[in-house]
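JOB MANIFEST
job_type = single_chain_structure
chain_count = 1
residues = 281
[input]
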Amino acid sequence: MAIDKNTESSATRQIDAPAAAIFDILSNPQRHAETDDSGMVVSADQGERLEKVTLVHDGALLSEGRFPADLAQRYTRMFTDHGVTVLPHHRGERVEADGDDLAVVLDDGTRLDATLVVVALGSELNTGIAREAGLEVDEDGAVVVDEYLRTSNEHVWAAGDIISYPDALLGRRRIEHIDHARKSGDAAGASMTGEDVAYEHTPYFYSQVFGNRWEAVGETSTQHETLEVPLDDGRLVVYYLDDAGKPVGVLAWKVEDAMDAARQVIADGVTDPDELRARIR
């Protein structure tokens, strides 16, 4: 959600829009800010450009739930090196508007004046129509499908963010990202036409901040044990290991075209650390 000061009418407007639309607002030549998916960005402008950016989040480091500590520190430092003020261990309680002026009130009462506020709220499944239609949904509200993306009703298929599906490498799971949306949509469409094409793709996801791109596949939570493999030129591979030492997720930081190799590592169940260090370079 973005809350913006409308310079034409001097009124405050709330924009409920997908992330892409919000980033389009932020990338307007007369308004620019970098943002992250892990917290709240509060921007106060000087002149016509948004020159001061404050990012408020409730953790110690940005993306610390996904990145190992060293990488999370590097990631956070990228923001501060680009002039972003990062305020950890805080949450935004509310946004107040007084005419043209916006302010974010934090959980400790601190007020941050702003011109543009972007709030990362996450998402919730909206699968009530599936439940009302009698389709099986799990306890989290995801529509349960088989390997052909067929629901509990043999005449209904589902794809994308809303489904719980049997991943060929990782077992039953739900994932939100564009690669999954595209590939599962293709598979569901083919299955609906009678091809019965099993969905065997393990999706990857990615992000890019300040010119640094990373990609990942599988379960990438720091609740898992991690094995970090530093490469040259600041590149890094992170393996996320289950209790048996098998990789269940791989993150490639600035390593190009690594996702097929990452999937193969997961499929092979490699447990030897030395072999893991040599698999993706």
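[summary]
The mean pLDDT is 86.
The radius of gyration is 21 Å.
exit_status = 0
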